[in-house]
Specification:
Number of helices: 16
Strand content: 15-25%
CATH architecture of the largest domain: Alpha-Beta Barrel
Strand order of the largest sheet: 7-8-9-10-11-12-13-14
Order of helices and strands: EHEHEEEEHHHEHHEHEHEHEHEHHEHEHH
């Protein structure tokens, strides 16, 4: 692998997405036209970084990043900014090592109001440019060249796509809504789920509501027997539905707020205000071997509360992003979702997202590295009325996969 990432430090207060950093580093190598070379990135603590800084630079205390080129004596080439590129005569295609102090990166992330991963990405970029011969300490001109190159690379990273494959789970509630409109047996959400799986869906989602307005108990029992991917049962935390879930044992449950008068789920759970009750439900599910996701707004208070009471997943509500009328508001909502997904991931939660996503709004959410799966239903069922369910699922899956593969 061209990029190797190793950990030499404990980080109890954070969770580092090594795949994300490796992908970003690989993109940087490609943009710098050295994708055929190997790069080693070591994440250390302040203690080790202090030793390295003292031993190699004769400076006391930790620094944020150090670069160690494979060879200081390789023949040098020069790019159009005057940076020395020590690559041509290296017999083994290895650039060298970048060493980063996670402790220092955490402090700087807070100081500069960045996520930890964005700070680590900047340090990798900075370290890589040093390996390629850029040196901001030589002169003001050299510092300017290096800064410009950093901005250029980071801007390209922001517009590059992830190589992680975001999963697509299909909510078949509204197939049942059509059936219930006539009180008959068609269309069958169980048959719909099978079509969705054959079209590539990674999971099936159903919401068993207290008022049974669409999905019925029998549907859930049959789905448990027939779904071959993963069955995610959305539910309110009331005793009757909890007992049904414990009896059926879906692959996971998602706890959602539920009001009889609402047309669809209108917002996320207020986990912070219901910690005791929700913790009891999570405990019951965990004893039965059922992991729990909490459907929440993109709010740091709710994310921390979800983590505190033992949730395995959070599903971030994307409704306000999807429903935004003005581009500025939509962009603000997107940035909030991106930041909160990062926060949730860093503290150890697995992150899903959903609600209101359609064929226009899905791609940007699917491209977020920290989001593992999207739950989409209404837009696909609506499109299926014109194109057929198989085609509707495949069209949405193509959007998700395109957004989450490398550009």
């Amino acid at each position: 692998m061209p990029v190797t990432l190793s950990f030499h430090a404990d980080c109890p207060n954070c969770r580092i997405n090594s795949r994300l950093l490796q992908r970003r580093a690989s993109t940087l190598l490609r943009e710098c036209r050295v994708s055929g070379h190997d790069l080693s990135i070591r994440l250390v603590n302040d203690t080790e970084m202090s030793w390295l800084n003292e031993h190699y630079r004769h400076k006391s205390g930790p620094t944020n990043v150090l670069s160690f080129p494979l060879s200081e004596n390789a023949d040098e080439g020069t790019d159009n900014h005057g940076a020395n590129i020590q690559l041509a005569q290296i017999p083994i295609k290895e650039l060298g090592d970048i060493v980063i102090s996670v402790d220092t990166a955490l402090r700087e992330a807070k100081e500069f109001h960045q996520s930890l991963h964005d700070r680590l990405t900047w340090l990798i970029t900075h370290g890589l440019l040093h390996l390629l011969g850029y040196d901001h300490e030589l002169s003001e001109a050299d510092a300017g060249y290096m800064l410009d190159k950093e901005h250029e690379l980071l801007n390209k990273l922001r517009h590059s796509r992830s190589t992680s494959m975001t999963q697509l789970a299909i909510n078949v509630d509204h197939i049942a809504t059509i059936r219930q409109a006539r009180g008959g047996v068609e269309p069958d959400p169980v048959a719909a789920a099978a079509i969705c799986e054959m079209a590539g869906a990674a999971g099936i989602v159903v919401h068993l509501r207290e008022d049974r307005r669409h999905i019925q108990d029998r549907d859930v029992r049959l789905l448990r027997e027939t779904v071959k991917t993963r069955l995610n049962l959305e539910m309110g935390a009331n005793k009757e539905i909890i007992d049904i879930a414990l009896g059926i044992r879906p692959d996971m449950v998602t706890l959602v707020p539920e009001k009889r008068q609402e047309l669809t789920t209108e917002g996320g759970l207020d986990v912070a205000a219901q910690k005791k009750m929700l913790a009891k439900t999570i405990n019951k599910m965990e004893k039965a071997g059922i992991p729990v996701s909490l459907f929440i707004d993109a709010d740091i208070r709710q994310i921390k509360a979800a983590h505190e009471i033992g949730a395995t997943f959070v599903e971030i509500h994307t409704g306000r992003y999807c429903d935004a009328i003005h581009d500025k508001v939509r962009e603000q909502e997107f940035q909030t979702i991106a930041a909160m997904a990062e926060e949730a991931y860093q503290i150890g939660l697995r992150v899903f997202a959903g609600h209101g996503l359609n064929y226009q709004t899905t791609a940007r959410i699917a491209a977020l590295d920290t989001i593992e799966e999207l739950s989409i239903g209404h837009a696909i069922v609506a499109r299926a009325a014109f194109t057929g369910l198989d085609r509707a699922v495949r069209d949405m899956l193509a959007i998700v996969q395109e957004a989450s593969r490398i550009g």
